[in-house]
């Protein structure tokens, strides 16, 4: 009887819980750093692991960003589609920066 009461209370609690809505507010655009003028992605790279978050904050850095997308495809944005597994660690292991000057990664 005791177990049934606990299960009933747990069921009621689960039904009363609400899932918080995703953040609908957009993150403000990051200001462009003029020190990056004349630089390429080999000099500076922003790596973004995304599921369903807004990434418009990085639009000033389009030429420097690599987006790994584990959610629905993003229209008009170049991204690399990945299976949604392994949380952030999976994305980090997939992203392999290329060695600079033929030397190994530092």
Description of the molecule:
There is one protein chain. The protein has helices at 2-16, 87-94; strands at 46-50, 65-69, 80-81. It has a domain at 42-98. The mean pLDDT is 79. The termini are far apart. The protein is built from two helices and three strands; from the N terminus they run αβββα. 22% of the residues lie in helices and 11% in strands. Strands 1-2-3 form a three-stranded parallel beta sheet, with helices on one face. The protein is of the alpha/beta class and 106 residues long.
Q: What is the mean pLDDT?
A: 79
Count of individual beta strands? 3
The H/E string reads: HEEEH
What structural class do the secondary elements suggest?
alpha/beta
Spans where pLDDT lies below 50 across 5 or more residues: none
**Main sheet overview:** 3 strands, parallel
Q: Report, as a whole number of angstroms, the end-to-end distance.
A: 62 Å
Order of adjacent strands in the largest pleated sheet = 1-2-3
Radius of gyration equals: 21 Å
